[in-house]
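Quick start: what a row looks like.
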Amino acid sequence: MKSYLFAFFFICTFSYSQAILKENTQLNDSVDYYLEIATFNKEDKHSYNRAIVYTEKAIEFAKNKKLAHKLPDCYLILGNIYCDLEKTDTAIENFIRSINLYKEKEPTSNLALTYYSLGKCYLEKNQVELSEVYFKKASEIYESLNFNDAIQLINIQKGIIQKNKKNYNKAIAIFSSIINSINNDTFTETKVEAYYQIGEIEIINKKYEVAIENFNQALALNKENLKNVQLKKKILKQLSHTYKLNKDYAKSQEFLEQYVAIADSLGNYYNHSLTEDTFDKIQFEKQLKTIEQLDKDKKIQQRSLRFNKLISILSIALISILSLLSLSLFKNNKIRISTNKLLKEKNKELTIEKNKAERASKARAEFLATVSHELRTPLNAINGITYLLLNEKPKATQLNYLKSLEFSGKYLLAFINDILEINRLESDKVLVEKINFNLIELIENIRISFNEFIEENNITFHLEIDKTISPTIIGDPTKISQIIINLVNNAIKFSKNGDVWLIIKKKTESDTDIELSFEVRDNGIGIPKDKQATIFESFSQGSVEVNRTYGGTGLGLSIVKKIVEILGSEIYLDSDTNKGTSLQFDLAFKKGTEDTETVPQITIKETSPTAKQKRILLVEDNKINQMITQKMLEQKGIPSFTIDNGEEAIEHLKTNDYDLVLMDVHLPGINGTEATQEIRKFNPTIPIIALTAISLNENREMLLSYGMNEVIMKPFVPEEFYEILFRFLNTNTEE
């Protein structure tokens, strides 16, 4: 099956003439050239190691030359090579990459083939529900393209699924339909496979004569060439076995001798094929190169004896800010806990103390929101200057320090975002979405995103999903993702060299509703009994030693608890020291429609403005932010003019033309939203993008309501900044 699956792919895409290909062909480098060599080595020479090498060369060439439209085919070929090598997980990863890239185009036969290949891989892993999902997607595309013969490939797999489920009559009906519908020589092997599968079912039914008849039909159809010889070998072996069951020992011996003769000839043919260790050798060579590079970097670091003074000062300032903020928030949290205990002890003063607690909570929220908001401005300067320095080709001795500063800035930004998320969840302004989504795909994507972290911590990850669960449900996929990601991240972090389980079971089900039980379990360090009462409080990690050893903000479980409560449920903890931890919660959903697609993730692409010269007006009062923004625009060759207040910006735009305005929200005098409203009175078309260190009381929808076209949040993420900027500049040019 694998061989003619791969053959079908090249009939649909390349139509290669592999018989005349030689490795010394004098051609210019190209993706198709490398893929042709890879295919030749796999199909004709059975040299899988060379096939992998040339496919990866094609991927590297496509990336270097920015040939994004070539990458989906490259990953599809690489996935099929690993599928032949029975490296199913690696094959799945490459098929998923291919699907994500194909989805940017109209549905094609290659996309359908990728869905089909992914379905086969999940079938080999005995994940029947997932395989059926992808076979269905492949069928829909083939039907829309009128590729009726190709649909029979999928019907073969559907028949095998029914066979594995012991629905033998349904399976035979599917295989018989395939036999009667195929008239194309290209798909003869599909017909052969159908006869073979019927034969295997008849052996199970103990109808040996019928089984022999179907195996002989398969043998007669099978052509004697190298690509079909494995299938012939399989048929001969089953014929020998079936004649033996039918007590015709002479015939059994005859077919057994034919099987042995083919096996011997194959042994000589595959002298140059891939050995069992080739995959591991390829991986080892990659690791060896990485180790050599790390060794070089280490020697350079050892020779470096001087620190860059500017980087040292910025690093110390960053650490000091983080320490002061953590200390302040920790003390504030302790005061809140103490106040709650005091309220329970003094029932007579309940009303007065309750009001005090509410005022303290409000002050705390306002304090955290204000501090988090105000920290974004200096943090924008730190991250922005770091980004600019990294793009100015720093010395090798400075690069590591800049990377460390960049990491620290991103860590602090994540910390501030967690604080704002806690405040947002406590503000009663959170809306729960109710949309169709595929739960199985969502969980699988989350698992794939953790692959690198799992390998770093040497974790054995177990994903157990009840196979009877309907995959499409109605709910809030974003909030469910937040819960699962936080819980799995904690389990991996605190269970190094151990095991982590993600278990989803069905509790109850009706025609319209379903209730699911979610559990994340590990066998890590566990949580002491005396710390479990406060483990869901903000900034709580069990002990100072745990914080120092494993890091983190201590906000993850607090965020999870609040989201679970917003979704109408509770989370339960079961843990003990050195015995692991289990966190479990139940959620109720409405059933969704099976043909609903999940919302595609947005991928930020690097683009560039059109050839026409652009002019941008920057309205920003902070001098450092002015410098950083101007430098980022200069790196893309875009000229800008800067004004530091809203009043002048309004008057300036009345007499000057610009292609786009970058408008800071918080300006002295007239703020950015008021200035935008005034500009819209005489210029309703110019794109105006808001720049803001967004606070608890601000949101994107509110800013857009004033006439702004988009919002960029400080500190800037360079890729997002350029993507939004070029999107509006290019749109303006096309108009």
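That is the whole record. The longest helix spans residues 350-390. The chain has five domains: 1-146, 275-303, 309-426, 435-591, 616-734.
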